[in-house]
Write a structure and sequence with these properties.
The protein has helices spanning about 5, 20-30, 45-50, 100-115, 140-145, 195-205, 220-235, 285-300, 315-325; strands at about 10, 60-65, 70-80, 85-95, 120-130, 150-165, 180-185, 240-245, 250-260, 265-275, 305-310, 325-340. The chain is α+β, with helices and mostly antiparallel strands. The chain has two domains: about 5-155 and about 335-340, Gcn5-related N-acetyltransferase (GNAT) (Aminopeptidase, 3-Layer(aba) Sandwich); about 180-305, Aminopeptidase (3-Layer(aba) Sandwich), CATH 3.40.630.
């Protein structure tokens, strides 16, 4: 390790430390890759809010690496409750400070933090170019391999983007709502009447029937959606939802979600789309996504680019997205390394 890495000082990323927090936001923004349709630009409000509001059932552990009082690197781990893994959410070196051993020092620090939190495995999703797709930086995978990480048996998936300037999925209108169903819109906060259904549909991906929705601890049934909304609001994000309600029973048959940050008016994220197993076969998935796109464009007319990601084995949703005009841009592959180095 050279002198730069040896002189690093690691400072916890804490919501109460405004100077370190501001330095981290600047570092993250300056380090963002300018690659079309790879990622939305960082949003300062979203970044700051993410330190104060962790996702449900997780703990965040972040640090900023200082050299001579300047922020030159950062790392952040996501620690899921009750799991042996530490997910590397961020490990970056300032562009002007690369190739000085700082990245290696950050990786070693990530291992130490993971061990401190009782984790045995570091995992991270790395991007990979698709055949015939735009090039992607192979440096992160080379770096990970050099430090002993390997591709894991974990999930792999496809990152897709929809450019509304190039293709308008609403050009032919929204399909008719199937008989026996009605469409319900809502915004960032889920109506009380649907809180349990949204929690359970998301948890089970539609495989659990409504007869199970009123069972089990209250924390399992209702708190996830409310805690997720608390995180979303705390990060300054807005969300748009459309659900399909089965009129005969009043049950929520499915829903879809799109969210966006405060600082990126042209970008949005297509989130979960799920239809209960008992209500499949009516093309509700496409209806929900198109109806929600109209919902988004009504309130966010500047949105131009929408991103989404799905696991490789979710063939129906990947095909549905492609039918809407989403274009695959890259793959994400899960890598892993033991928290404690061998020997």
């Amino acid at each position: 390790m050279n002198n730069a890495a040896a002189d690093l000082r690691f400072v916890p990323l804490d919501a109460g430390d405004t100077a370190t927090l501001d330095a981290w936001v600047r570092l993250t923004t300056d380090s963002a890759e300018d690659v079309p349709l790879s990622a939305a630009p960082p949003c300062a409000a979203d970044l700051t809010g993410s330190v104060r509001f962790a996702p449900p059932d997780t703990t965040l552990a972040g640090e900023v690496a200082l050299l001579g009082g300047q922020a030159v690197g950062a790392l952040r781990l996501v620690l899921p409750d009750g799991a042996p893994v530490a997910v590397v959410d961020q490990l970056l070196t300032a562009p002007k400070e690369r190739r000085q051993g700082i990245g290696t020092a950050l990786f070693r620090r990530a291992r130490a933090l993971a061990e401190q939190h009782g984790r045995t495995l570091l995992v991270a999703d790395l991007l990979q170019a698709l055949h015939g797709g735009p090039p992607r930086d192979e440096g992160p995978a080379v770096f990970a391999a050099a430090l002993g990480a390997t591709p894991s048996d974990g999930p792999e998936g496809v990152h897709q983007w929809l450019d509304l300037d190039a293709h308008d999925p609403l050009a032919d209108g929204i399909p008719e709502v199937p008989a026996g169903y009605r469409i319900q819109r809502w915004g960032t906060v889920t109506p009380d009447a649907f809180a349990i259904a949204v929690s359970e549909l998301g948890r089970s991906l539609g495989e659990a029937g409504p007869d199970t929705w009123d069972r089990g601890p209250e924390a399992i049934r209702t708190s996830h959606v409310r805690r997720f909304e608390r995180m979303r609001v705390g990060r300054g994000r807005r969300a748009y939802h459309v659900g399909a309600v089965h009129e005969a029973t009043g049950e929520l048959a499915g829903f879809t979600s799109v969210s966006k940050t405060t600082g990126n008016p042209e970008h949005a994220l297509q989130g979960m789309t799920v239809v209960a197993s008992a209500h499949r076969g009516h093309h509700l998935g496409l209806l929900l996504k198109l109806a929600n796109l109209a919902h988004v464009r009504e309130y966010e007319p500047r949105v131009r680019l929408i991103e989404t990601a799905n696991a490789d084995d979710n063939h129906p949703m990947i095909a549905l997205n492609e039918a809407m005009g989403f274009i695959p841009q890259e793959r994400w592959v899960s890598w892993e390394a033991p928290a404690a180095p061998a020997g």
